[in-house]
Amino acid sequence: MASSRSEKLDLIVQNIRTFPDFPIKGIPFKDICPILKDPRALAAVIDLFEEHVRQKHPQAELIVGLDARGFLFGPLLAQRLGIGFALVRKKGKLPGPTVSVAYSLEYGAAEAEIQEDAVEPGQKVLLIDDLLATGGTLGAACELMKKKQADVLGCLVVIEVNYLKGAERLKSCPVFSLVQY
User: Fold this and answer.
1) Are 40 and 14 in contact (CB under 8 A)?
2) How far is CA 3 from CA 41, 99, 180, in A?
3) Is the N or the C terminus of the chain less surrounded, counting Cβ atoms within 10 Å?
């Protein structure tokens, strides 16, 4: 089992693969499926996120995961931290009253939503997803949190694609990434 921070990061990097021209030409898709397949790599991701949150955001009250890969890491982290988990989904996927926001992606447009009662005003939240590219999805999630009057402490991602400058789009929301390309 990887024990040091650098060993954990090495294990994570070894379990990320790139598929060129997916989902469209010009997009080098970073695939995290091998991380999920390797329990040591998955544990390394959650260990490093947990360490970061405990050091930098011990006041966090809720992890908010983005559709769909944020759902893979978010509940595991929330359980480790002993806090709740909420979903941000694509429009039309959640039952009951919701709050939504439209946004653009690097290869299209979409709309995200959260259930009205998922986040309380003033609640201290951290957003989580697998990857930060242009910042469209995380930016939309930040907008949803603002609509809900939540206090966004930051965003957690496994992978950050630096050349797409997504973190710049999220200036008001600090980004913590494990791996950068």
Assistant:
1) no
2) 11, 41, 21
3) N
Rounded to two decimals, what is the model's pTM? 0.95
CB 11 within 8 A of CB 2: yes
**34, two tokens:** 């091998």
Q: Which two tokens stand for residue 102?
A: 């439209």
Looking at the annotation, which residues are catalytic? 69, 106
Cα separation of 77 and 65, whole Å?
A: 10
Nearest-10 crossing angle of helices 39-56, 70-81? 60
Inter-residue contact 18 to 29 (CB < 8 Å): yes
Question: Scanning the structure block, which residue is given the tokens 């390394």?
Answer: 44
Do 137 and 103 form a contact (C-beta atoms < 8 A)?
yes
